[in-house]
Amino acid sequence: MAEGTAEFSLQVIASNRVFYSDKAQQLIVECGNGKVGLLAHHEAVILATVPGELSIQKRDGKWIHVVAGNGSLVFANNRCTVLVDTCETQEELDRRRAQEALERAQERMRQKQSIREYNLTQAAMARALSRLKFKDKYN
Hints:
The structure is a single chain. This protein has helices at 95-109, 115-137; strands at 8-14, 17-31, 34-39, 45-49, 52-58, 63-68, 71-76, 79-84, 87-88. By secondary structure, the protein is α+β, with helices and mostly antiparallel strands. Strands 1, 2, 3, 4, 5, 6, 7, 8 and 9 form a 9-stranded mixed beta sheet that branches. The model has no long low-confidence stretch (mean pLDDT 88).
């Protein structure tokens, strides 16, 4: 850690595992109206996250980049907890599978659906697009 660099406690929890649990210098997440960056001693906040890139600057200054799904974030008392439905690293992503998921969602969009089905299809499409974008960025 660089001299004087402030840290905060961070936990990133996906539906199937605890992805990160340690101190961090910085966190950048995708929210409904763009990316949000959080540093140590950020004001208390609760945010909804959307599918997209989640970046963590670890204690040693190195970055971890993952693609995360929908979720929420709570930052208070220099502690941050991020709960997401999915969290995948570059190595865990399968481009072909993401492309197939996008094609399935696009096909469902062309069919008549209830409002609920339409919203689920939109969410599936957003997840697939964020995975493909992430894979292209770090490939």
